[in-house]
Amino acid sequence: MKILLDHNLDRRLKNHLIEHDVSTTQEQGWADVLNGELLTLLESEGFDVMLTADANIKSQQNMTNRQVSILVLRAFNNRLATHIEMLEDIEKALAEIQIGEIIEVLHKDLKAKLEKDNS
Question: Mean pLDDT, to the nearest integer, of 99-107?
């Protein structure tokens, strides 16, 4: 699977996604590209999924007729160590995600807080 790491994620995360072909927005020269244009670039370059920490992207982007998917990593911070703790859930979501979908992967601590707040 060809994956792009958005600029808001630690680029070293790519070293932990060894089963995939991973690039960063910095490596692609797209660090300053806005999301709508970025999705078009992803499609034109054959990417399958973008990983991002932008929780608002769900409400900002219309994924109808898009040929890429978005995986949103949600946690209390964007530290590499935090995202490494999420790797099993990230890999599971990558295996299940469909073209045009936006899926959120929540860190266990955030998930527990949200469940507590809703009870």
Answer: 94
Q: How many residues are listed for the chain in this entry?
A: 119
* Distant-in-sequence, close-in-space partners of 107: CB < 8 Å, separation ≥ 6: 73, 74, 75, 76, 82, 85, 86
Would you say the pTM of this structure is higher than 0.90?
A: yes
Q: Is 30 left (phi over 0), alpha (psi -120 to 50) or beta?
A: alpha
Number of helices (H), then strands (E), belonging to the chain: the values are 6, 5
Give the three-class secondary structure for 104.
Answer: strand
* Cβ(71)–Cβ(49) below 8 Å: yes
Pick from 70, 39, 74: nearest CA to 55: 74
